[in-house]
Specification:
Layout lengths: L2 E6 L5 H12 L3 E3 H5 L9 H11 L5 E4 L3 H8 L5 E5 L3 H14 L16 H28 L5 E4 L1 H10 L8
Parallel strand pairs: 1-3, 1-4, 2-3, 4-5
Helix pairs in contact: 3-4, 4-6, 5-6
Length: 175
């Protein structure tokens, strides 16, 4: 496994798993949110975002976490050799999103100038998390099937399965 894509709902543990996999396998981690958002939660031009993603996945090894299906699957999935879908329960995702937002700590998977806060846009974000499985998951899966039908997919549900998966991987070899 040299190029891994991690998908899932907000708060599912994509960033945490990406960091753990990166450390375990000795691979660089790409957080799509850091490539997408400009300071102050400003969306970049589509071409600018795609150029950032294209450059990030041009190397031979990476772990890339984030959905952005319509915008980036054509760049990432043809090069991926594994997709991990995190099937974290919605209630867990909501709890994690609320806790991290209330803590107001900087997150390593967000760019400078982008902090989660409780405001009107946060309510929209919570709605996204709540309706992810019903409204978004099928579209992401359809795009995955179209852009990367040959890429093996592993589904992990919950902390125990994620830990078991990580513990079953070989540690990075010392070069």
């Amino acid at each position: 496994m040299q190029r891994i894509v991690i998908l899932g709902n907000a708060g599912s543990g994509k960033s945490t798993l990406a960091r753990a996999l990166g450390q375990r396998l000795g691979l660089p981690v790409v957080h799509l949110d850091t490539l997408f958002w400009e300071p102050g939660w400003i969306e970049p031009e589509a071409d600018r975002f795609r150029a950032r993603v294209r450059a990030a996945v041009a190397s031979e090894t990476w772990i890339c976490e984030g959905n952005y299906a319509r915008r980036t699957f054509d760049l990432r999935l043809p090069r991926a050799d594994l997709i991990i879908w995190l099937d974290t329960p919605t209630a867990t995702c909501l709890r994690r999103v609320l806790v991290r937002s209330l803590s107001n700590r900087p997150r390593p998977d967000l760019p400078a100038g982008c902090r989660e806060k409780l405001d009107r846009s946060f309510l929209t974000f919570l709605k996204y998390v709540w309706t992810f499985d019903r409204d978004y998951r099928a579209g992401i899966e359809a795009a995955r099937s179209k852009q990367g039908p040959q890429v093996p997919v592993i589904h992990l549900r919950g902390t125990r399965q994620i830990e078991a998966y990580l513990n079953g991987l070989p540690a990075a070899s010392a070069a």
